[in-house]
Design goal:
Length: 146
């Protein structure tokens, strides 16, 4: 412990391995990450692995909100007609985004361009997450090394 090296405690049940670690973590004000190993423990239990994507409806709702924010910015700052009544808001975003790419944006404030770029990046990320079947989830070992 003095040299800050990782270690593995092995012993019979009830001998105090966990308690010693918990007390040591409390004394040093360190977060303790415990992994209970057994005969079915796999590499993915330590380093992580691909997991099915859950909560797609929540992601779709977040995407809708971000697109609406983007379209509101366009509506307030550009001479482009934005029809928010269209049911396919993603199509509306694609159309408006394509129209904006053809405009001369040199007279647009840096703040507005940065905000729109940030929203576009969020939209792209959310679209990718919605399409994905699996995503990588870090395991406790990787979390501890961050």
């Amino acid at each position: 412990l003095r040299f800050k090296e990782p270690f593995l405690l092995v012993g019979d049940t009830g001998t105090g391995k966990t308690t010693v670690c918990q007390l040591y973590g409390i004394l040093l004000s360190q977060k303790l990450q415990m992994i209970n190993c057994h005969q079915n423990t796999e590499t993915a239990d330590f380093i992580g692995g691909l997991r099915p994507v859950r909560g797609k409806e929540l992601m779709k709702e977040k995407l809708r909100v971000v697109i609406e924010e983007f379209l509101q910015l366009v509506k307030e700052n550009f001479d482009i007609e934005v029809n928010t009544e269209i049911t396919d808001i993603e199509h509306t975003y694609d159309t408006i985004s394509n129209s904006l790419s053809k405009l001369e944006l040199s007279n647009v404030s840096d703040f507005l361009l940065t905000k729109m770029n940030s929203l576009s990046i969020k939209i792209k990320r959310l679209r990718g997450e919605i399409k994905a079947l699996f995503k990588w989830v870090d395991g406790p070992l990787v979390d501890c090394m961050k």
